[in-house]
Amino acid sequence: MWEFSIFRALGLMIRTWPFIILRAAIHLLIAALLVVAAGAGVAAGQALAGEPFGSSAALLGGGAGLVFGALAVAVLRGRLLHRMTAPHLAALVEALDHRPLPAGRRQVALANAIVAERFGDAPTLLALDTLIRGVIRTATGLVDGLLADILPASALDRLARASGAQLRLTMGLIDAVVLAHATRTRSENAWEAAHDGLVLYTQNARPLMVSAVWLSLVGWALAGLVALAAVPSMTPLAEALPGVPWAVPLAALIFGWAVKAALFDAFALACMLQLHLRLTLDQDPLPEWRGRLTQVSDKFRQLGEQALRWRSGAAQDI
To answer: How many Cβ atoms are within 10 Å of 254's Cβ, its own excluded?
Structure first.
C-alpha cells in the first residue's frame, strides 16, 4: 500500500524543523482564535436573547462566531500559502534533492527567497494556486475508478466519487505536489512549470490519489484521537460555559485539527513528494494528456496563456 519511506519522511521533517515549529505556532494560534470567536459568539447570543432562549441563542452565536473565524482564515489563505505552505514545500524539495539546508531562521529566509523567485508575490501565487486547484478537479474526473483499490464495496466507491469526497480529502496534498514540481524544476516561468506538473499529475493520478486518500484518512483518524485525548484538559472551558455542553467537544475537535495540520500534514507532504518524484523521475508530459486537459479545462488553458504571456514579457494578473 505504501510506496514511500516513512522513515525518510520523518527525516525530511527533521531537516525542515524550523517550518514544523512555524506550522505548529500558526495552526495553534488559528485554533485558539477559532475557539475565542466561537466563545464570543456564544456570549453575544446569550446576552442578546436572554432566557428562555439562552441555549438556542448560544448555539447560533457560537456557530456564527466559528463561521466568521473560518472566513477570516480563508481570507488569509493567500498570505499563509506564500509565507508558510509554499516555503515549507521549497525546503522539503531542497532536502529531498539532497541540497544543503541551513538551520533556523536562515532556512526560512532561504525558502522564502526561493518562493519569491519562482512565484513572485502572494497575490500571484494565490492566482496560480487557484488555477491549479481548478485543473486538478477536472483532471481527476478524467481518470475513472480512482478509488477502486481503496473502497472495494462498489456502492461506497460510487458514493465517494459522486460526492467528490476523495477530492475534498486530498486536494491539499495533490495541489502541493504540483507546486513542488514547479519549485523543483527551477524554471523562471512558474505558469509553464505548473502546466507541465498538472499533465504529470494526470498521467500518474491513480497512485498519487490512492496514497493521498489513505494518508488523509489516517490523518483525520489521528486528529480524532488527539481530540479525544484533549477532552479531559478542557475542564476550565466546561466550567466557564456550563450552559453550553458542546463547547468542550468543539474545542477538542479544533485542537485535533490544529495538531493534524501542523504535524501530520507535514509528514503527509513529505510522503507525497517522495512518491511524486519516484513516479515522474523519467517521465515527460505526454502530448495526448496535455491535449485532453486543454479540451476540457478552461483553467488549464488559462495557465497556458499565462505561461505564454510570461515568456513574451507581458505577463498579466488573472
So the answer is: 20
